[in-house]
Every structure is written in C-alpha cells, then in structure tokens.
Amino acid sequence: MKVSKLLHTRMRVNDLERSVKFYQDALGLEASRRFLSPRGAQLVFLKTPHSDEEIELCQMPAGAESVRVQPDLMHLAFEVENLEAFAAELAKKGFALSDGPTKTGSGSVIAFIDAPEGYEVELIQHAK
C-alpha cells in the first residue's frame, strides 16, 4: 500500500495576511481558498502554477504560542526560468535575496529569499 500523491504542505504563521501578501506579491502564487478550521485556525491555501500541490498557511487563534522558525528547519523550492530577471523583479517590488545567486555543481543557479516568520524560499534556475 502507498499514498497516491502529495496534496499540500502546512506552515504556521503569526500574521496570515502578511504571509499571504508575500507569497502573492513576491512569487505570484494565488490564494485558492480560505476558511476557518474546526479548531478556530484561519487557513489559506495557495496554488502554485504547474503544480497540484498547495501550500497551506495557518494562523492559530489568539493566545496560541508564537511561531519561531529555527534556521534551516525547512524551505520551499520553486523553479524560475531566469533567476537574474526574477531577482530584478523581486527588487523592484522591494524584496531582496537573502543568499545567492550561486551556481551549483550541476550547472543550476540557486538563490534564497526569506518569507515572513523566517521560512526560506529557494529559487532554482535549472541548467540548460
């Protein structure tokens, strides 16, 4: 027996609207649905182009412990066609790379940008 496919990845955040705005403005993701969970958490699902998997952002009700992301705990990785052009667009929108661009041994180029709460987002331009 095995699972069929990965559906979504959940990330807790302190400020849901700030996080949604980051993923929409910096990466062009689309909020596909919003709702309140049975436990009172606010949830927003983000769609990524050309992918079935979604990102679920979750803000717990008032009084919940604040999110503190440890360095290198986890990251999301997204493919971009042209990392230099993508980084230039990010800069125009007020977002700065936190690391890179760096050429890898395989010839790909990678860079990182920090999302709210300290989650890392990796940007990958595959070698051509």
Would you write up a description of this structure?
By secondary structure, the protein is an alpha/beta fold. It folds into two domains: 57 residues, 2,3-Dihydroxybiphenyl 1,2-Dioxygenase, domain 1 (Roll), CATH 3.10.180; 58 residues, Roll (2,3-Dihydroxybiphenyl 1,2-Dioxygenase, domain 1), CATH 3.10.180.10. It is built from two helices and eight strands, in the order βαββββαβββ. The chain has a four-stranded mixed β-sheet with strand order 1-4-3-2, with helices on one face. Strands 5-8-7-6 form a four-stranded mixed β-sheet, with no helix packed on it. A hairpin with a 6-residue loop joins strand 3 and strand 4. The longest helix has 12 residues. The mean pLDDT is 93.
Write a concise synopsis of the structure shown.
The protein has 128 residues and is α/β, with parallel strands linked by helices. It is built from 2 helices and 8 strands; from the N terminus they run E-H-E-E-E-E-H-E-E-E.
List keywords for this structure.
single chain; 128 residues; alpha/beta; 2,3-Dihydroxybiphenyl 1,2-Dioxygenase, domain 1; 2 domains; four-stranded mixed β-sheet; 2 helices; 17% helix
Element layout with pairings:
Layout: E1 8-12, H1 16-27, E2 30-36, E3 42-47, E4 54-59, E5 75-79, H2 83-92, E6 99-103, E7 109-114, E8 120-125
